[in-house]
Design a protein that fits this description.
heterodimer, A: 115 residues, four-stranded antiparallel sheet, 0% helix, B: mainly beta, five-stranded antiparallel sheet
Chain lengths: 115, 112
């Protein structure tokens, strides 16, 4: 079956611009995670959705970052007034059920470059 | 602050060598420990999820152990092959939250 997909695969933008990153989870997965990965680091947790609601958004670095999942499937990560420090690979993962003991299935990521 | 440490940072071995890596995590309020393999240009792929102290999991030539009381997990690869070359990530979560904290990974290079 289809895995987790993310679009775009690459995004280059200018400092100060607004960007949206999209994640299509595996059909039927109720849990969805967003992570950010910088060079030489592991994925950094941003936000976790269970269904339509953000159950834990404690990893969002500041109020320029926002994520939605209005119908409990596709999710969009939104970054306002982008800064050069936002450049990273943004990963999305989905899993069955609640609880972080479930295996997470990752998408290929979106590489964001802020010039 | 929850911190997950992995060692070594990178490892170069010859084909056929057996090897192991360490993941250290907070021992209090443990909930789950994950191991992932991340090959270049691919998505991270789950290897194991472990929840109980003393858990041992095995998949082919790869196995993992878990000690929640002292806060560490080992990943073992027996008879390394070039296709095992990848970054191996561990991730920890504690009770009461859904956050998954990843280590920086161990980068394994297996030379033929």
């Amino acid at each position: 079956g289809a895995g987790v997909s993310q679009t775009p695969s690459n995004k280059v933008t200018e400092k100060g611009k607004y960007v949206e990153l999209r994640c299509d989870p595996i059909s039927g997965h109720t849990a969805l995670y967003w992570y950010r990965q910088s060079l030489g680091q592991g994925p950094e947790f941003l936000i976790y959705f269970q269904g339509t609601g953000a159950a834990d958004d404690s990893g969002l670095p500041n109020d320029r970052f926002f994520a939605v999942r209005p119908e409990g499937s596709v999710s969009t990560l939104k970054i306002q007034r982008t800064e050069r420090g936002d450049s990273a690979v943004y990963l999305c993962a989905s899993s069955w059920g609640e609880g972080s003991y479930n295996e997470q299935f990752f998408g290929p990521g979106t590489r964001l470059t802020v010039l | 602050i929850l911190n997950v440490e992995q060692s070594p940072q990178s490892l170069h071995v010859q084909e056929g060598d057996s090897t192991n890596f360490t993941c250290s995590f907070p021992s209090s309020n443990f909930y789950a420990l994950h191991w992932y393999r991340w090959e270049t240009a691919k998505s991270p792929e789950a290897l194991f999820v472990m929840t109980l102290n003393g858990d041992e999991k095995k998949k082919g030539r790869i196995s993992a152990t878990l000690n929640t009381k002292e806060g560490y997990s080992y990943l073992y690869i027996k008879g390394s092959q070039p296709e095992d070359s990848a970054t191996y990530l561990c991730a920890f979560s504690n009770t009461g939250g859904f956050k998954t904290i990843f280590g920086a990974g161990t980068r394994l290079f297996v030379k033929a």
